[in-house]
Design brief:
With about 450 residues, the protein is an alpha/beta fold. It has 14 helices and 22 strands. About 30% of the residues lie in helices and about 25% in strands. The chain is globular, with a radius of gyration of 22 Å.
Amino acid sequence: MSKTKRSEYDVAIIGAGAAGLAAARDLTAAGVNVVVLEARDRIGGRIHTIHQTGNPLPIELGAEFVHSRTGQVWDLLHASNTTAYYADGDHFELKKGKLVQANDFWEQVGKVLDKLEDLGPRDISFIDFLKRCCRGKDMAEAKKLALGFVEGFDAARGDRISAKSIAQAEAGSDETEGAESFRTVRGYGALMSFLHDHSRQPQLALRFGHVVHVVRWRRGRVELHARTRQGEPLPPVHARRAVITLPIGVLRASAGSEGVVRFDPDVPSHRAAWEQIETGPVVKVLIECREPFWEKTTFPNATTDKPLHNLTFLHGDTLAFPTWWTHFPVRDNVLTAWAGGPAADKLALRSNREILDAAVASLVKLTGLSRHRIARVIRVAHVADWQADPYARGAYSYIAVGGIDAPKQLQKPIERTLYFAGEATASEGLGGTVDAAITSGKRAARQILTNLR
């Protein structure tokens, strides 16, 4: 990180998440002077990796899985001499009060998602799609599972998410995407550090605690006004161009809210685009247990009389936390609870204590173990409520009905001066991932370098 402060930069980047760091790396490599302004006191944005003594793997409070076998994340893993492993193991779901092995989950979900090919030209919500396409009692279970998958995996409301965007994502994905998940061995935080550390340092300045609230611009000139997190004004930052990597939840937030940015003059075409993109809420609870009790204890609710040695995922669609997972095949003491979309909305405005209580209650119903038994095995718990974070205001984006072209609009530079990046700007249904964020940052850098020539 540069120790001297310049009065003006070639490019200012708002946000030190995956998109901002990827853009900074490529721009500084080309000799461009860059300043990155970050509201938090760390890099990563919605990636937040913490390391606990005694655990073989780090804990991910934010982004965790890799949902493809190719892409920018894998390129970074190879470049940083690390890797990811396939999270393969046993899946169980709660049916009529019993934990049963979920052998046909993906087959059932696929029966519904395959019908998206017949959607037609008009966009509708996923809920409306389910009503129209999947009639008959034999499809009832498949529809329920598909809705739960979309609302949980995409952190979306079924009555808001664009069916066409899901169809686009399905058409552009690997056949096994969604069914396969990988986890980075050193955590996503290591990849963020790699992006930063392998930027050309004399060309890079990184300023933490800068909450940008005004982007004043004209063609070829940008003036960024920021405050500290305590509200104290900071000196303006001047640049020839700016890359805005703010999450959609922040861009859409009402004026006067913490972390919200005002554009002067306004950017109406891009504003109209980001108003067609929603931010999905996610609440995670990561529980470090005193022991991996699922490997040593028979669950009263399970249909097997043996401990779940190879447990990967637990599902209970009516619970406050419908999805749980372990780090298997790596064996450690960490158990993660996940609520996305409507399930996360129901946890809004609750305290961390109340959220943890809801997680424990869900685990009691899943396993049949007593609340006392569950509470006794918990050593420490970490709560991550991403919609409560003023610099995120949600976990990741999804396309609202009618907004299929919104990401492409956000990819367009404004007067060769303002550039937008971040996972929400990824088109072809590829948003919502770390890979999309990195790709978007590299795209913005490429656009700037092209315009500089």
